[in-house]
Specification:
By secondary structure, this protein is mainly alpha-helical. The protein is 57% helix and 10% strand. The strands form three sheets. It has a two-stranded parallel ribbon. A two-stranded antiparallel ribbon has the order 2-3. It is globular and about 50 Å long.
Amino acid sequence: MKIDISSIAEENHRYAIHLATLQNIIAYNNGSYNIKDIPSERDPFEAVDFWRNISLSAEILLKACLLKHHICFFKKRAHSEYGEKVTAVANEWLDQTLRELEIDYVAQINTGTVRTAIRYAQKELFNRILIDAEKAKLITQMFYIIIRTRRNRNSHFFFPNQGHIDITEVEMLFLPLLNLLEELYRR
């Protein structure tokens, strides 16, 4: 049996929304992210979960944008010829991409890091959909701030000083980034 990933961009878009809204701090309505609930004190573990989920949401939304606009950032993972086979029957571009990369199994798909995705966005996506240069620069800068301050720190270890939610950071960094990425996805 083969797994059909023809709608992988749409599925990742939905997953990005799920992650961003999971803790009921952010809402998603009509293609826009907004503050839903300004939290009073939250458990430190829940706060770190929020930072990890919203950071991962932004990465997945960027990758969904790349796939939707037919920009391949996949690489073939070596020695991964196991598990379920993969196909993209209803997505000609993705099917061709999988064949060109000689990817036969889901396990062979390496989606890379957020830094890799940013490079593909800078090199191809921003030019392809003609985004304003300042917006493109802002997206890149916001990702690098997140990488340095939240993404890697909260994904691999628990630091108690990260165990609170700063709504200002959400409003000034994450909401604008998610909404810019949503705009790119919708184009």
